[in-house]
Backbone:
């Protein structure tokens, strides 16, 4: 049995299109064998049975009103509905008895019990007409929402400051506010067998690659997972390679970035209750791009991009280099530097690899503790912990001064990336490099690098190679990869999105 | 994934596959292996390039006659099932031993330069595992890795700058100051640095535009040749004749001439990053061995890679004397010379068979 439901109090477009969409089949146990839509209303659904289903839900409201047209019962979940809207839109017309008022609501003819229940749970108000044995529906869903504020995850100095909130409708409206045309499609799906979470797959019809769209839709339809709490969970379930440490789809909490991806021919997926949207496909290099790059002058943007990109490689190489230089190849360091490091290491009794692992883990612990604590305490702990532990560790002879500097720099570099998941990945990969360096020195590091590159080269994002545009190369993409050319040069859509129209229209 | 498709290699994939498989350990000791001809050696890479390009002609011609077959299939078609399979088994052995030779030569060098006095078992296992990891993605994975390797290691040519600065340009002349036997000696030893392009016979069926393969492979060959030419010229300028003859890895010495403020011994760095070049070469031979196994057993299986890897590990750890091993590894390069010339014979055989067929008609 296919269940579909919609609760939209905003403008509803393409109503009839949606109904033909196949939906994942929730396997909740409350379902009883119900008549198929082709043979409607074998027996009318009684209000008592609805009442029975909604028992023990203390916000379920059943209210009887006597109108000109007969007795009606209004059913709704009070927590999902703004009482003012309810009062204005439903109760007042009913009580004032303006005649024919019932006709203004959507009739629910041929609806079975499950659909009626779902529409109540979705925040609609269902009106039961006792005389005609008929159900009517009014869209009154208005849950409490957070106001639009600026993004904390991806803040920028210039450019728009609005960010997505947890409400799907707000997020959709933020995007649709920016692209005003009918070509922007948004298809709704319901995923999560228990949570019935709504997601919206958005794309611009004349730009998106059909194969990509088909692929992501297939994957969404095949999903079989209990509950989705955030879009990152969906992301992991529809990824090409779930075992990789690298995120294969982009994520953003900024509407302008989402719109930019849409205009490039990508697919954007938004989820109810999720503050970020997902962009697919996405490439490795894009993880180093921030939206501000396009608002900045191209010189500054390029400089920052190069910094972020090399930062990634420095952060995974710096501390491992310290290990291999000190424990395997002291010859590669200039003599003065070697003396300096040895001097600062003179009181440290451990081999370099233990020393590095120790201080790296301490930094990781500080970061984790600082980010989980209440903000005010977190900052204090971070500063005090950092300084106190750092200084004390050096004085106690647990680590060397030089190492503290290196670790601090590499920790900072790992946070240069605008994509949080990518910076996590870089820190994870660093541990592999540290272990490789500890075991096999510089050769181990190079072998780890070979592994890393080979892994990245074999990764795909929605079937498109992850390392584009470097390999496979596409010359026009290189203009907007590590180097951000002046906007006038960016005339083509990226090869990554495989858009139907490659050239952006000029003039 | 692209792995399932048959035709996966674009033109640039072919260029870099040819280029990277050729560059292996050979380059490191190029000046040394060409030393019989003394200072006259610097133009030999060009000659080798010409020879390589000439021998490429029968290879590609033969491959074009059998567009969808690799050398293993061609063997079976030309010689029949049994002789073909025997030849293929020999080829597998050849590829495996070369794989082992490439790895072990490199690890020996690492052991003597970068990691003195350490046991290399761990490195060896890691190395083989990594090659397996690369090969698991198929030939395209290897091709992509080759492109990356080119950009990761190609810039090292810049290090030759210091060699030029300290070198003596007069060493380049006279050109032909050697005897025929010296020349023969140098060619015999030096040509193995170019070995590797013959593997195109094995990945030819995967090339998307086979008609253009000759052009792309030639570009690959000349890319390598230009690298070699640069190294030999600088080597000749920088070293004395005695050094050329006695320094086993002149390129490492050239690295040591580099004078940077933040790194003292760039040669350690250079030799470890060389691992990328070794990985591509070793990977190509492992892939060939795997393909051979597939064709002999008439079955495509990823397990063949593991079998080959284990076999290589056993070969490397065989309890035979160092001398024997060295002889084996040197001889195996002569086998590759044979393999490069082998297609000429196959071409003749192919023509004879075609004539016969036409006569029958």
Residues:
């Amino acid at each position: 049995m296919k269940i579909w439901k919609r609760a939209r109090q905003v403008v509803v477009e393409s109503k009839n299109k949606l109904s033909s969409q196949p939906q994942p089949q929730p396997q909740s146990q409350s379902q009883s064998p119900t008549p198929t839509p082709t043979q409607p209303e074998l027996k009318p659904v009684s209000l008592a049975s609805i009442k029975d289903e909604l028992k023990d839900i203390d916000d379920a409201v059943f209210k009887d009103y006597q109108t000109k047209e007969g007795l009606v019962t209004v059913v709704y979940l009070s927590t999902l509905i703004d009482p003012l809207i309810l009062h204005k839109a439903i109760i007042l017309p009913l009580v004032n008895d303006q005649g024919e008022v019932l006709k203004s609501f959507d009739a629910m003819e041929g609806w079975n019990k499950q659909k009626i229940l779902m529409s109540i749970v979705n925040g609609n108000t269902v009106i039961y007409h006792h005389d005609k044995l008929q159900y009517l529906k009014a869209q009154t869903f208005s849950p409490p929402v957070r106001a639009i504020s600026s993004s904390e995850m991806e803040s920028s100095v210039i450019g728009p400051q609005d960010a997505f909130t947890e409400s799907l409708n707000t997020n959709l409206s933020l995007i649709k506010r920016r692209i005003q045309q009918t070509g922007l499609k948004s298809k709704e799906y319901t995923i999560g067998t228990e949570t019935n979470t709504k997601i919206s797959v958005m794309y611009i019809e004349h730009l998106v690659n059909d194969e990509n769209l088909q692929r992501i839709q297939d994957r969404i339809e095949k999903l079989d997972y209990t509950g989705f709490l955030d879009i990152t969970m969906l992301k992991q379930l529809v990824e090409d390679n779930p075992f990789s440490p690298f995120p294969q789809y982009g994520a953003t909490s900024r509407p302008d970035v989402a719109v930019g991806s849409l205009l490039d021919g990508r697919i954007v997926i938004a989820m109810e209750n999720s503050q970020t949207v997902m962009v697919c496909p996405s490439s490795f290099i894009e993880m180093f791009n921030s939206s501000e790059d396009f608002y900045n002058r191209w010189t500054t943007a390029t400089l920052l991009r190069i910094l972020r990109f090399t930062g990634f490689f420095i952060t995974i190489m710096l501390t491992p280099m310290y290990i291999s230089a000190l424990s395997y190849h002291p010859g590669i360091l200039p003599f003065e530097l070697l003396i300096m490091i040895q001097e600062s290491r003179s009181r440290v009794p451990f081999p370099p690899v233990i020393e590095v692992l120790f201080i790296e883990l301490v930094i990781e612990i500080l970061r984790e503790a600082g980010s989980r604590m209440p903000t005010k305490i977190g900052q204090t702990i971070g500063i005090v912990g950092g300084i106190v532990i750092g200084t004390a560790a050096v004085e106690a002879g647990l680590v060397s001064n030089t190492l503290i500097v290196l670790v601090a720099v590499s920790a900072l570099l790992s946070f240069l990336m605008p994509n949080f998941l990518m910076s996590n990945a870089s820190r994870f990969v660093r541990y592999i490099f540290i272990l490789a360096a500890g075991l096999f020195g510089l050769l181990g590091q190079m072998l780890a690098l070979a592994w890393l590159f080979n892994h990245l080269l074999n990764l795909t994002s929605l079937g498109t190679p992850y390392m584009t545009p470097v390999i496979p190369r596409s010359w026009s993409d290189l203009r907007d990869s590590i180097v951000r050319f002046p906007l006038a040069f960016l005339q083509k859509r990226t090869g990554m999105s495989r858009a139907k129209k490659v050239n952006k229209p000029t003039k | 994934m692209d792995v399932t498709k048959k035709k996966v290699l674009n033109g640039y994939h072919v260029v870099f596959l040819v280029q990277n498989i050729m560059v292996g350990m050979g380059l490191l000791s190029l000046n040394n292996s060409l030393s019989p001809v003394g200072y006259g050696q610097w133009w030999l890479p060009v000659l080798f390039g010409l020879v390589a390009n000439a021998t490429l002609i029968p290879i590609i011609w033969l491959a074009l006659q059998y567009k969808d077959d690799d050398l293993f299939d061609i063997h079976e078609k030309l010689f029949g099932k049994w002789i073909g399979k025997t030849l293929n088994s020999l080829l597998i052995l050849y590829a495996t031993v070369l794989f082992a030779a490439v790895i072990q030569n490199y690890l020996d060098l690492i052991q003597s330069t970068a990691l003195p006095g350490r046991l290399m078992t761990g490195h060896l296992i890691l190395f083989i595992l990594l090659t397996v990891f690369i090969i698991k993605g198929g030939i395209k994975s290897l091709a992509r890795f080759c492109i990356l390797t080119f950009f990761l290691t190609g810039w090292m040519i810049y290090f030759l700058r210091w060699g030029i600065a300290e070198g003596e340009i007069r060493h380049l002349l006279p050109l032909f100051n050697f005897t025929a036997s010296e020349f023969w000696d140098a060619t015999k030893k030096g040509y193995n640095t170019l070995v590797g392009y013959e593997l195109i016979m094995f990945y030819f069926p995967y090339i998307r535009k086979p008609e253009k393969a000759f052009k792309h492979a030639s570009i690959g060959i000349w890319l390598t040749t230009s690298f070699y030419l640069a190294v030999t010229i600088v080597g000749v300028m920088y070293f004395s004749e005695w050094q050329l003859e006695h320094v086993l890895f002149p390129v490492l010495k050239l690295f040591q001439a580099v004078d940077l403020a933040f790194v003292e011994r760039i040669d350690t760095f250079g030799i470890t990053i060389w691992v990328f070049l070794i990985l591509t070469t070793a990977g190509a031979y492992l892939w060939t061995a795997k393909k051979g196994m597939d064709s002999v057993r008439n079955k495509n299986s990823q397990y063949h890679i593991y079998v080959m890897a284990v076999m290589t590990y056993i070969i490397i750890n065989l309890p035979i004397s160092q001398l024997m091993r060295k002889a084996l590894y040197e001889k195996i390069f002569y086998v590759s010379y044979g393999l490069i010339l082998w297609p000429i014979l196959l071409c003749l055989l192919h023509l004879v068979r075609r004539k016969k067929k036409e006569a029958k008609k």
Observations:
- Chain A touches chain B through 29 residues (CB under 8 Å).
